[in-house]
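Box 3.1 A note on notation
Throughout this textbook, protein chains are presented in two layers. The first layer is the amino acid sequence; the second is a token string describing backbone geometry. Keep the layers aligned when reading.
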Amino acid sequence: MVFLRILNESFRFALHALRVNRLRTFLSLLGVTIGILTIVAVFTIVDSLERTIRDSVESLGSNVVYVQKWPWGGGGGEYKWWQYYQRPEPDYYEMEKLQERLSTVQELAYAFGVNQTLKFGLNSVERVNVMCVSHDYNEIWKFNIVKGRYFSEMESRKGSAIAILGHDVAEGLYGNADPIGREFSVLGRKIRVIGVLEKQGSSLVGQDMDGSILIPITYVGNLMSLKNQNGGTIMAMAKEGVELAAMKDEIIGNMRAIRRLKPRADDNFSLNEISMISSGIDALFGVISIAGWVIGGFSILVGGFGIANIMFVSVRERTNQIGIQMSLGAKRSFILSQFLLEAVILCLIGGAIGIGLVYLGQLSLPYIITDLDFKIEVSLMNVIQGLTISVIIGLISGIVPALSASRLNPVDAIRSGQ
């Protein structure tokens, strides 16, 4: 009951301080508001970006290994690009040989992409990523087909002139018309549309499926060589219950045998997996978080000085009142708590305003930046973080003025008001 009474009185005193000198209070709260706004805004953007990137990374598959020319990371050391540059690209025929040998793999697929211009009548879409894929590509890289269907096994084997279009490509070629069954030109040939992918939006990691099309790699093999195609990737999904390390060991042994590498020769291919990206993301966002604290910390520091200043002024203006309270039996701890709670409440008001401004920014940003690649969302953790910082700043800023108030001599305090 005593605590509630102190809290009630402190809240009333805080509101009184706001009303008595609005300009002074506004300038004092401005620092806290800006500080909390900066910290919450920075961490909201960082958390939203990190969440989007991690979701994109998860789409790569946690149980999938990518056999590629270039490693995703430097293996913790120097990135020897001059050595990686000399490596051959994994090709479709190596994937077929692996398919015959591997026992730990559930699904195996191959893909490479080339940028091409697609044409239909007077409409054309430039720089489309034409993904040349093996039949089981859809088993590893998950996507939804909203119109039509995927390639049949017979179509993939024969190399039929068919394609599945990304949402943006279909819209660019055919507008609102149904593209299924229609033909377009690419690589100097006519290809028939059999499916359209669901709109996915921009991906910060991985393929942009909206701006891509899928065609059977066996069809492309009739037009060009499938060897040493830039960006060629063999994708292997582990069987259920098989550890990724065991599958990687089997792939390494068989790839070395297929490429006839000598026992002491280094691997001329890389095995990439999601954990490589995840560790890099952890390190990157760790640095960004520290930078966010530094940026917001300076704003909070200024706000803390502002709150301390208004509390010293409040103690000076209410010295007589403090003396009367002490003469009537109020303990020093009561006076200390009263001013400390007042500082905390003032900081919470400033913090709440800052969080509210961030929330308003979240609602208005999509209308200001229409092509933003990720969704910004203020999470409950961001709100709790902002309010917690407000409380801590209130305690730190208010402790010295509160101590000075609690140590006043009652007689001297009463006389100061005469």
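Residues 2-57+278-415 form one domain. The beta strands are 64-68, 105-120, 123-133, 145-148, 162-165, 183-186, 189-197, 212-216, 233-238, 270-272.
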